[in-house]
Amino acid sequence: MAVNEDSAFESRIGKGTKASGKLNFRGPVKIEGEVEGEISGDEVMIAAGAVVSARISAGRVTIAGTFSGEVTARERVELMATARAQCTISSPNLVLNEGAHFDGDCKMPRNKIAA
Fold first, then answer.
1. Within a domain: residue 7?
2. pTM of this prediction?
3. Which of 12, 53, 98, 111 reaches 20 to 30 Å from 33, CA-CA?
4. Closest by alpha carbon to 62, among 26, 37, 94?
5. Position 4 in a domain
6. How many domains does the chain have?
7. Burial of 91 by CB count in 10 Å (0-12 exposed, 13-18 middle, 19+ buried)?
8. DSSP state of 110
9. Is 5 among the domain residues?
10. Do 64 and 83 form a contact (C-beta atoms < 8 A)?
11. 89: how many CB neighbours lie within 10 A of its CB?
12. Half-sphere exposure of residue 29, counting CA atoms within 13 Å on the CB side?
């Protein structure tokens, strides 16, 4: 993930916060609490300890917490060692770090190959 420092996240759903519904973010977002619904944005980070049940559509998604649902990423999805994901992933790039738990399906669409 390109954004690693906490100060780089423009939006945050903190520990102890529960949110549900359609959430749209223009900048990087870090989720540390509980979220249910739909999430869209450029860069979504689900922190260790977070619990998310959602449909995510973003450029880049990093999962370190517990996630269930669907992820559609235009660039990349990364499951960190602490990730517990039960989901469907669609992304051209998928990174599974050692220790990550992934139960689900993954589709890796590719650009059309030049003739």
1. no
2. 0.88
3. 98
4. 94
5. no
6. 1
7. buried
8. -
9. no
10. yes
11. 22
12. 23
Length of the chain, in residues: 115
Q: Please give the Cα distance from 17 to 30 (Å, whole number).
A: 12
Give the angle 22-25-30 at the CA atoms, nearest 5°.
100
Closest CA to 84 of 100, 61, 70: 100
Q: How would DSSP label each residue in 32-94?
A: -SEEEEEEEEEEEEE-TT-EEEEEEEEEEEEE-SEEEEEEEEEEEEEE-TT-EEEEEEE-S-E
Helix (H, G, I), strand (E, B) or coil at 101: strand
Question: Pairing state of beta strands 11-13 and 84-90?
Answer: unpaired
Cα torsion 86, 90, 91, 93: sign: positive
Query: For residue 15, which amino acid is it?
Result: K
Instruction: Write the CB contacts of 5 (distance below 8 Å, at least 6 apart in sequence).
Output: none
Residue pLDDT tens, the chain, 115 long: 444 555 567 789 999 999 999 999 988 999 999 999 999 999 999 999 999 999 999 999 999 999 999 999 999 999 999 999 999 999 999 999 999 999 999 999 876 444 3
